[in-house]
Amino acid sequence: MFKHSIFLRIYAGLVVLVMLVALFGYLLVQIINYQRAQEYRESLTDGISYVIGEGIARQPTKQQKLDWISDASDLLELPIYYIDASKIELSRTEKKRLDEQKSVVRYDAETSIAYVVIGLKDDPKHFLYIKVDKIGERQMKALPIFILDYLIFYPGQEKQYVQKIQKYFSYPINIYDVKDLNLDSEQIGRLRQDQSVMLYKDNATIRGTTISIISPMPNNPMQALVLGPVPLFNWMPFQLSAGITLFSLFLLSLGVYGLILPLERKIRQVRYALNRMKSGDLSLRVPIEGSDEMANLASSYNNMSDHIQRLIEAQRELMRAVSHELRTPVARIRFGMEMLAEEDDYNYRIQQMEMIDRDIEALNTLIDEIMTYAKLEQGTPSLDFEEIILVDLLNQVAIETEALKTQKEIELIPPPTYVMVDAERRYLHRVVQNLVGNAVRYCNDKVRISGGIHPDGHAFICVEDDGAGIAEEDRARVFEAFARLDDSRTRASGGYGLGLSIVSRIAYWFGGTIQVDESPELGGARFVMQWPAKRFNENSKKKKSI
Predict the structure, then answer these.
(1) Is 351 helix (H, G, I), strand (E, B) or coil?
(2) Which residues lie closer than 8 Å to 471 by C-beta, 6 or more apart?
(3) Looking at 235, 258, 275, which one is the last position of a domain?
(4) How does pLDDT run across 121-161, given as a tens digit for each residue?
(5) Which residues of the chain have pLDDT under 70?
(6) Which long-range contacts (CB under 8 A, 24 or more apart) does 299-306 make?
(7) Within-domain flag for 246
């Protein structure tokens, strides 16, 4: 069922596509956020790493450098190591960052510990190596101390040097008058006590939550150093969510186009074939791919084209054959009428009138055959199937044939009376009648009629004769309309070549087949028609119209 429905495949494909795009989007967000988090960590440490490096560079001796580093470690409550540069392997990107006086951050996701490497511009043989296993208020409030330690060497020029080092910080650093900071009395009191103040601010804009650190200037209590606002890391900022959403929609659009493209291609093939048919070209057939709805549509189109082409060819043949078949009786009728006009002998006139009457009857028979054939050939007829006792119908045809005084032996091998088949009685009678009539016309002495149901559930009727039979190369041609194997339309056997064509069309609409071969016992032709014996539930007596 699933593989036969192109629409179910499209729906299932959409579900799978959405799941794949969602998984891809999740992985893409994780990868992007990993890179963003790394850049965020580096941006937070770049500025303070530069200031720390400047502070160490001002120490004249190695021991003083080590003492400064020890004091910085105590202030941050983080271990800081002064190590040989050869002990740390750096990538090309990391070397470039250190050359630019930026920090290198290595983050271990399993232990949630960051390792910060800081280069020393006056001591290229050594690095500072900081193990950051915690970030809290203590560490945050220590940051302004390093900046103030840097600015203490530039009294009166603090603002100028703050602007100078601003390029190393990803967040703003400024010196403001305390009265311009909109602080409450408690916060101002803490500044006067030489304590730092941290301000948390929730922002509904893209920046989100931010932190600002305010520390009093050592020599000017009316001013304060302000770091921030520093935005906290946002795992899903608007730009990222919007970008991932748009990219996911783009992937979904491509996927939907990929799912719809085969359907569109198949529809385009059918539309092209229909346009060719409209122009009169019936030779084009649509390729059948798979077994879904479009394959069924292509198959229906091909069947329709075959049927239309067959109808057109049958119409042409019918017109040619009818015109030929009608000429003979019409010519005889015209000749008979002329003879009546010139003949005075009463008995002769009666004889001519009888001949004309036979010709008119022949015309009626021909017209009836043509109408039946055309009805069966033009499309699906209305067939009212019912349960028929097969032996009754075969026996009826045998009795009707014997009543014609054909001087031929009609042998009926009757099937059991319980054998019932589903068929349209009128058309099945016509099949048996045509086959028996054809056998009587060509047999020598004997015709045999039989029927039944095969083990595979197909009903059959069989008509055999002891005549000359039909050559193997001509067996398919006998079912063509107006076919005459001896090319004679005035032979003594009579007929118009439509009987077997009608049988073939009835077998087709019954959903069966008609075949001819050699009778193994009588030696003449054997015609066998097969069709499904049951077309509806055996307990249902309701007729089914197809």
Answers:
(1) helix
(2) 485
(3) 235
(4) 888 899 999 999 888 888 888 999 999 999 999 988 999 99
(5) 1-4, 203-207, 314, 317-318, 320-326, 328, 366, 369-370, 372-382, 481-497, 536-546
(6) 301/270, 301/273, 301/274, 305/273, 305/277
(7) no
What is the rounded CA–CA span in Å between residue 216 and residue 148? Answer: 9
Q: How far apart are CA 280 and CA 276, in angstroms?
A: 7
Q: Which residue has the tokens 């092209």?
A: 272
Q: Which two tokens stand for residue 477?
A: 């041609």
Domains held by the chain: number: 3
Q: What is the pLDDT of residue 542?
A: 40
Phi–psi pair at 126, nearest 5 degrees: -130, 155
- pLDDT of the residue at 318: 65
DSSP code, position 479: G
Residues 2 and 78 in one domain: yes
Same domain flag for 216 and 175: yes
pLDDT of res. 464: 95
Residue 227 backbone dihedrals phi, psi, to 5 degrees:
-105, 120
Which pLDDT score is estimated for 398?
Answer: 93
Q: How far apart are the C-alpha atoms of 118 and 55, rounded to whole Å?
A: 12
Q: Is the pTM of this model over 0.85?
A: no
Q: Give backbone dihedrals phi and psi of 217, rounded to 5 degrees, phi first.
A: -75, 135
Per-residue pLDDT at 485: 59
**Helix spans in 85-157 (H):** 92-99, 137-151
What's the chain's average pLDDT? 84
Do residue 533 and residue 389 come from a single domain?
A: yes
Contact between 455 and 515 (Cβ < 8 Å): no
In this structure, the answer to whether residues 130 and 172 fall within a common structural domain is: no
Structural tokens at position 299: 């198959």
- Determine how β-strand 173-177 pairs with β-strand 220-231: antiparallel
- Residue 114: which H helix or E strand, with range? strand 113-119
Sheet with 458-465: strands ordered across:
409-413, 446-453, 458-465, 525-532, 513-518
The sign of the dihedral angle between the CA atoms of 70, 75, 79, 85 is negative
Q: What are phi and psi of 80, to 5 degrees?
A: -125, 130
Residue 342 lies in a domain: no
3 state DSSP class of 97:
helix
Q: Which pLDDT tens digit goes with each residue over 97-122?
A: 998 889 999 999 889 899 999 998 88
- Sheet strand arrangement including 210-217: 173-177, 220-231, 210-217, 197-201
* Same domain, residue pair 84 and 8: yes
Its domain, for residue 206, covers: 136-145+154-235
- 33 and 68 co-located in one domain: yes
Alpha helical stretches, state H, 279-292: none
- Cβ distance 387 to 535 under 8 Å? no
Report the candidate in 454, 396, 448 with the shortest Cα–Cα distance to residue 426: 396
Domain presence at residue 345: no
